Amino acid sequence: MSTLHTVNKSPFERSNLQACLGHAQNGDSVLLIEDAVFAAIAGNTFAPKLADAAQDIKLFVLGPDLKARGMDPAKVVDGVNIIDYEGFVDLAAASSTIHSWL
């Protein structure tokens, strides 16, 4: 089974997303929650990094956190899947390990 990596801090304030992407292995999942959702919007400096990472790992962003921050789901980077809380639970249940990048 794979690892679910959760990232909750803005990549514009901390380097935990960059560290997570460097450690995630082929087949792992990365879920952006809370302020980390800012990285999922196309056109910012992290968009190309996420697009590259999507070739080897599964990328997700929590839709309710996008909405809470007034972000347009239509502008999410290609390769990043929007999920709800039920999808979050499903990811956690399907993973052998969960690593939170705080």
Fold and architecture overview:
- By secondary structure, this protein is an alpha/beta fold.
- It has one domain: DsrEFH-like (Hypothetical Protein Ychn, Chain: A), CATH 3.40.1260.
- Helix content is 30%, strand content 23%.
- The chain has a five-stranded parallel sheet with strand order 4-3-2-1-5.
- The model has no long low-confidence stretch (mean pLDDT 96).
- InterPro entries: DsrEFH-like (IPR027396), Sulphur_relay_TusB/DsrH (IPR007215).
- It comes from Magnetospirillum sulfuroxidans.
- Pfam families: DsrH.
User: Helix proportion of residues, in percent?
Assistant: 25-40%
**Helix vs. strand class:** alpha/beta
Number of helices: 4
Helices and strands, in order, run as EHEHEHEHE
In short:
With about 100 residues, this protein is α/β, with parallel strands linked by helices.
Descriptive keywords:
alpha/beta; Hypothetical Protein Ychn, Chain: A; 102 residues; globular; five-stranded parallel sheet; single chain
Topology:
Blueprint: E1 3-7, H1 16-23, E2 29-32, H2 47-53, E3 58-62, H3 63-68, E4 80-83, H4 85-94, E5 97-101
Parallel strand pairs: 1-2, 1-5, 2-3, 3-4
